[in-house]
Amino acid sequence: MLICVAGVHGNEPAGVDALNRLLAGLRESDTPIRGDFVALAGNRRALAAGRRFLSRDLNRAWTADRVSALRNGGAPDPSEEDVEQGELLVAIEQAMTRARGPVTVLDLHTTSGEGGVFSTISDRLPNRRLGLAIPAPLVLGLEEQVDGTMTEFFDREGLVTLSFESGQHEEPAAVDRAEAAVWIALEQLGLIDGPAPSAEEARRRFQEEFGHLPRVLEVRYRHPIEPEDEFRMLDGYRNFQIVDEDEVLGRDLDGPVLSPQEGRILMPLYQEQGEDGFFVVREFKPFWLAVSERMRRWNLERYVHLLPGISRVGRGQEALYVNRRVARWYALELLHLLGYRKHREARSRLIVVRRGGVDGDG
Questions:
Q1: CA distances (Å), 312 to each of 99, 241, 341, in order?
Q2: Which pTM was predicted?
């Protein structure tokens, strides 16, 4: 089963248009589907208003506590997004009860800046395989920087998940790219018998448009913002544009906002609402991608707690303590290769988390 969700942010209608067009094309061509294809609009009230959200960001609310509350009746005075999230959760879980095989969730988005076409995943091998099937940049590590996304929640539930950004919000080509990504996913997941002409054409177009960019990149920095910061991005930045260390990227109440390092800018904020001013990413070399996959297939996470400064949290292998005063130079780089990306501070130590229990890396 492939479940596609579009319009989780109400100012991003391109994915909804793409799904409507694709569904019409499937009906018109009578293309046989081997399995189930489900298309959902995420935040219908915000879509009608043309706003990212009305009360709160629907793609920052998929925490275990909030979902548990929704399953148990929700808030006594629900906001617009509480209602939307409850309806979306019911629709997805009802679809999952009808699934006749593995379930994949594909979340379609667009960006406020130009050139924002890429996939992003929680870094498990099944998610990688789907992300690498789409010939546009694949960004690793966003899930380490942003909490409460829908795909992160369903990834923890054991589903294959992927988010696809198809371009700038109002760009007509964003609809075409979103539809193309879904065609590729349908073929990659085996829901369409044999090679699909639409998927082949989509791959060719993606390769022509984005073949000059690194295939895989990794997030190295996030610039979080609050409304009271009055952050403003400087005009003219495109996604994946190269930036220098200490380059002025924007301004807030404290003055110029600088890039902390050399890299490529991702998702520069050119809209009223948002919690992220920009990200800085760098290429993740194909060599290290192959090394990472081999390390996981060899299950080397079983032994990483034996290294100096690293210990397990509990008995499992999903979470580790990292003493950064001991494990300085190698710790996070090595742990990223093994799939440990989510982390938080715990006094003098860092806790890193890997989706080991549902990784499916073998």
A1: 36, 39, 15
A2: 0.90
